[in-house]
Amino acid sequence: MTTATRVSEQSIPNIPGYTITEQLYRGSRTAVYRAVQDGDQRSVVLKILLSDYPTFGELVQFRNQYAIAKNLNLSGIIHPLTLQPFGNGYVLVMEDWGGLSLNQYLQQHRLNWVEVLKIALQLTTILHDLHQQRVIHKDIKPANILIDSASKEVKLIDFSIASLLPKETQEIQNPNILEGTLAYLAPEQTGRMNRGIDYRADYYALGATLYQLLTGQLPFIANDPLEILHCHIAKTAQP
């Protein structure tokens, strides 16, 4: 594997072949940076795992998002360029489309209903194209949608838990380790219903996302993860 300096809480990683110019995101498990490729000076986006010793599951998810997205010839997604060894994990190199996550955008701007409908139309088209290629994203939410602040064009990112199967079954699990994000989770993804997961799960999450864009809040709000799951299964969001 490539010798590389791992990321500490304060440091910027040293990734051979790239000069990092900006940190775009830092979570509990991953970080995303904008960088310049040293050879051809192309601007790219780099995603890395923060752990010095990532779990097998984290490595599988990292490889999954590259393996699925690289074969999708769609204009509505951010395309990966390569997956390279980095320390004990990987660095995912992606095209730099610009823009920022819809989650970040909403912290500074309020969308009017015409803009929301324009975004909704784009996202339904992107999801339709994905599903035509038998891909279920399974984690549709504002943080995984990039938006161009001027044109309001959007693109979908993060295929780490996406599935190529047309239908799969979710087993009952602790809500803290369920795949997906609880606030946008389709009922069948909870593992508490006798239903397989298919393309409709993405449209449920899209509905929750659009509800948030139009109202400024999530469809269901609760401090207890199990209560959130109950709301998705048994309750109807307030109109």
The largest sheet is: 5 strands, antiparallel
* Uncertain segments: 1-9, 170-179
CATH superfamily of the largest domain: Transferase(Phosphotransferase) domain 1
CATH topology of the largest domain: Transferase(Phosphotransferase), domain 1
**SSE-based structural type:** alpha+beta
How much helical structure, as a percent, in the residues?
Answer: 25-40%
Report Rg.
18 Å
Task: Provide structural commentary.
By secondary structure, the chain is α+β, with helices and mostly antiparallel strands. The protein folds into 2 domains: 18-95, 2-Layer Sandwich (Phosphorylase Kinase, domain 1); 100-234, Transferase(Phosphotransferase) domain 1 (Transferase(Phosphotransferase), domain 1). The chain has 5 helices and 10 strands; from the N terminus they run E-E-E-H-E-E-E-H-H-E-E-E-E-H-H. It has helices at 56-69, 102-108, 113-132, 200-215, 225-234, and strands at 18-26, 30-37, 43-49, 80-86, 89-95, 100-101, 145-147, 154-156, 168-169, 196-197. Strands 1-2-3-5-4 form a 5-stranded antiparallel β-sheet, with helices on one face. A hairpin with a 6-residue loop joins strand 7 (145-147) and strand 8 (154-156). Helix 3 (113-132) runs antiparallel to helix 4 (200-215). The radius of gyration is 18 Å and the shape is globular. The N and C termini lie far apart (53 Å).
What descriptors fit this protein?
Transferase(Phosphotransferase), domain 1; Phosphorylase Kinase, domain 1; 2 domains; disordered N terminus; globular; single chain; 239 residues; 28% helix; alpha+beta
Short précis:
By secondary structure, the protein is α+β, with helices and mostly antiparallel strands. Helix content is 28%, strand content 21%. Helix 3 packs antiparallel against helix 4 (200-215).
